[in-house]
Amino acid sequence: MKETKSLSLRLPSEEYIAFDIVCREKGYSKTGKIREFIRNLIKEEIESVKISAKEWAKIEKGIKEIERGEYLTFEELKRGLKN
Question: In Å, how far are 23, 50, 51, 83 from 31, measured between CA atoms?
Fold first, then answer.
C-alpha cells in the first residue's frame, strides 16, 4: 500500500455548512473534493516553489497515480486499519 498522510482541517461553522451543502447537492465526496482542491493548488503553485528534482519526481509520480485513480478513499483506509 502507498504511504499516506493525514490532514486535519478546522473551518468556521458557516464555511463547513456551506461546503457540506454544496457537496451533498452535487453528489461530491467531501474528502475527494478537498483532495481535488489540493491537487489543483499544487499544479498551479508548484512552479514558484523551490524543490529538488527528486522531490519534484515524487510529486509528479503521485499526481499521475491520483489521476489514474490509484488512491484509497478514507473509508477504504479505515477498513484496512481494522484488519
Answer: 10, 28, 27, 22
Q: Is residue 78 part of a domain?
A: yes
The structural domain count of the chain equals: 1
Report if residue 7 sits inside a domain.
no
Structural domain that includes position 42: 13-82
Question: Could you report the per-residue pLDDT of 28-57, keeping only the tens digit for each?
Answer: 999 999 999 999 998 888 878 777 778 888
Whole-angstrom Cα Rg for the chain: 15
Question: What contacts 9, CB < 8 A, 6 or more positions away?
Answer: 34
pLDDT in tens, 1-21: 578 888 899 999 999 999 999
